[in-house]
């Protein structure tokens, strides 16, 4: 059994200042992760590292680059954040190793992601905690586009060989919020979320959350969406924030 946990980029970096780690938040998260008992795969987002580097070069999930220099600049920025995350995990006593998607993953022309997981599975079997991150990934017909850590979480959770039974998404919001800002405790059908997330003038952010919920509902494992305050509870096996579990 394996747990996949994503630490959102805005949880571990100061999103407004380019390439700035939130050291205190990162070390709190690393300490919480150190208490986890069992197989764990970590994924982190881009925060003020990858998003800044990608935006500066006009690269996104939809718009790729054929400049190796630009692709490397995004990958290198994520490498600096990944190194900071690994250092914090090391300081907390976690035997964590990097798994870098640019060298491993690919997307087809429709955007479907292929993520070979042999190294992740073997790291887990050997007692390590693999740490992946959102990254530039080569895409058929588009050069290199941005792959979000959320997509990596879904690919890992769908990989039968990893036997994932729990997924956690830790971001800066305490869960999936309804129109009044309250955390929705449980989502079992997309219709529940779509109603709660609002109608046609939903902002990008809620649209993003609705899309995320739709992907999570398709997973075989329950997914927990929570804020930094819920990390200890999740690590201890609890259900902070919103549980997304398809029927
Ligand atoms: O923060 C984005 O990952 P996310 C990664 O999980 C890059 O969406 C390179 C911007």
TrEMBL record:
What this protein is called in its record is: Isopentenyl phosphate kinase
Q: Where is this site: Transition state stabilizer?
A: 15
Query: Which UniProt keywords are listed?
Result: ATP-binding, Isoprene biosynthesis, Kinase, Nucleotide-binding, Transferase
Question: Which reactions does this protein catalyse?
Answer: isopentenyl phosphate + ATP = isopentenyl diphosphate + ADP
Give the multimer and partner information.
Homodimer.
The record's function comment reads: Catalyzes the phosphorylation of isopentenyl phosphate (IP) to isopentenyl diphosphate (IPP). Functions in an alternate mevalonate (MVA) pathway leading to IPP, a key precursor for the biosynthesis of isoprenoid compounds such as archaeal membrane lipids.
- Tell me which residues bind ATP: 6-10, 46-47, 208, 212
Write down the species: Halosimplex pelagicum
What SUPFAM superfamilies is this protein classified in?
A: Carbamate kinase-like
The Aspartate/glutamate/uridylate kinase domain is annotated at 1-218
Species lineage, top-down? Answer: Archaea, Methanobacteriati, Methanobacteriota, Stenosarchaea group, Halobacteria
Question: Which Pfam families does this entry report, sorted A to Z?
Answer: AA_kinase (PF00696)
The family this protein is said to belong to: Belongs to the isopentenyl phosphate kinase family.
Spell out the GO cellular component terms annotated for this protein, sorted alphabetically and separated by semicolons: cytosol
């Amino acid at each position: 059994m394996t747990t996949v946990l994503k630490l959102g980029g805005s949880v571990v970096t100061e999103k407004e200042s380019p390439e700035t780690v939130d050291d205190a938040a990162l070390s709190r998260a690393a300490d919480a992760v150190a208490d986890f008992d069992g197989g764990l795969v970590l994924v982190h987002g881009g925060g003020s590292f990858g998003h800044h580097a990608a935006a500066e070069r006009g690269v996104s999930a939809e718009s790729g680059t054929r400049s190796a220099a630009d692709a490397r600049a995004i990958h290198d920025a994520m490498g600096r954040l990944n190194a900071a995350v690994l250092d914090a995990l090391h300081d907390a006593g976690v035997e964590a190793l990097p798994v870098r998607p640019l060298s491993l993953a690919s997307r087809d022309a429709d955007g479907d992601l292929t993520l070979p997981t042999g190294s992740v599975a073997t790291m887990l079997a050997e007692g390590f905690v693999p740490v992946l991150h959102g990254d530039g990934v080569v895409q058929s017909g588009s050069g290199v586009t941005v792959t979000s850590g959320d997509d990596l979480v879904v690919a890992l959770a769908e990989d039968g060989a990893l036997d994932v039974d729990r997924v956690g998404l830790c971001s800066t919001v305490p869960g999936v919020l309804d129109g009044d800002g309250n955390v929705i405790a449980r989502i079992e059908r997309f219709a529940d979320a779509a109603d709660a997330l609002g109608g046609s003038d939903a902002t990008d952010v809620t649209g993003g959350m609705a899309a995320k919920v739709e992907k999570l509902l398709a997973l075989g494992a329950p997914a927990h969406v929570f804020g930094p305050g819920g990390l200890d509870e999740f690590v201890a096996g609890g259900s902070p924030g919103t549980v997304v579990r398809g029927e």
